[in-house]
Amino acid sequence: MQEQSYIPIAIEGIEPMAFPDVALYLKTGGNFVLYKSHGRDFSQLDADRLTSNKVEFLYVSPQDMDVINEYMEANVERFLKSEELTRTVKGKMIFQTSINFINDLFSNPKKTNDSDRIRRLIENLLTYLSGDVRTLSTLETVIAHNYHTFVHSLQVTALSIMIHSEAYMLKHDEMMDVGIGTLLHDFGKTFLPDEILNKTGRLTEEEIARFKRHPEEGYSYLKENTNLNDIALAIVRMHHERNNGNGYPRGIRGELIPRGAQVASACDFFCNMTMGRDGNKIMSPNICLHIMRHEMKGAFNEQILKALESIVCTDDTESNLPL
């Protein structure tokens, strides 16, 4: 089984004697070795032994992810309220649960019509983020263990929520819609062929044209198959539009682009420029913001850029943010 077939689970999220009975694997180099077989409980001794050996994650097979997702999503609210878990541990659990959730939606598009499930996840993300920029640094503990697309979706969501908290006075319901829209902003990529998504070289003009259809395709599917409102749908459809009209798919500009989509556009570009597919930082936040302000002058709303800068370029976060 290839590495990408395994899904990481943070040790802190594996409750002794309560975690679902599935096989668990250790990662050793590039190989995955069976740690606990089906039919054997994961005990407190297991948890203590792994923690003492600085093991952060065990891995599960994708065939077990339905039961794992159900368990994690059912318990994450309880984990967030626990006084025994540190904020870092809580962040690792909510971010990993969110990434598994996005993976599930992108792999099973019909599950996007479960609006209650999506809203519960965003509610828990809002609870954890709560306007504290330092919480974003916890993403560093899970980025290297997940597919780029899913981590990227979560990173854009977290930054978008933080920017809206920093720069705009939104009611809770609208913040929920912003979170849902940004979480699903790249949903249209589920309809792209792997040879385009995974291509390492330069795309051909035909491939670029095909790629640029993903915002409209994601929007069309979600509009037809879910009850998402216009705020969330606009983010999916317009997250590649630019303030100066140089974006796609429609090339609209300025106030014709809803605020949520303008924020998502800036966050999407920033995250793509600063985080590589392997999870490593490829450009500093300061350099990226310089490009966005000067080399792409007019592409992004200045109020949004100021809020973004205040979040990603502080003394506390610049060396720690997983960008």
Question: How is this structure best described in words?
Answer:
This protein is mostly helical and 323 residues long. The chain has a domain at 88-312: Hypothetical protein af1432, CATH 1.10.3210.10. Helix content is 52%, strand content 6%. The protein has 14 helices and 4 strands. A hairpin with a 2-residue loop joins strand 2 and strand 3 (31-36). Helix 6 (148-167) packs antiparallel against helix 7 and helix 10 runs antiparallel to helix 11. The model is unreliable at 316-323 (pLDDT under 50).
Q: What keywords describe this structure?
A:
6% strand; mainly alpha; two-stranded antiparallel sheet; Hypothetical protein af1432; 14 helices; 323 residues
What is the general shape?
globular
Mean residue pLDDT:
87
CATH class of the domain at 88-312: Mainly Alpha
The run of helices and strands is EEEHEHHHHHHHHHHHHH
CATH architecture of the domain at 88-312: Orthogonal Bundle
- What gap, in angstroms, lies between the N and C termini? 29 Å
CATH fold title of the domain at 88-312: Hypothetical protein af1432
Structural class designation: mainly alpha
- State the major sheet: 2 strands, antiparallel
- The share of residues in extended strands comes to 5-15%
- Low-confidence segments: 316-323
Task: Tell me the total number of β-strands.
Answer: 4
Order of adjacent strands in the largest pleated sheet: 1-4
Quick overview:
The chain has 323 residues and is mostly helical. The protein has helices spanning 44-52, 65-81, 87-107, 115-129, 140-143, 148-167, 172-183, 194-197, 205-211, 214-225, 230-238, 259-274, 285-295, 302-312, and strands spanning 7-10, 24-28, 31-36, 57-60. The chain has 14 helices and 4 strands.
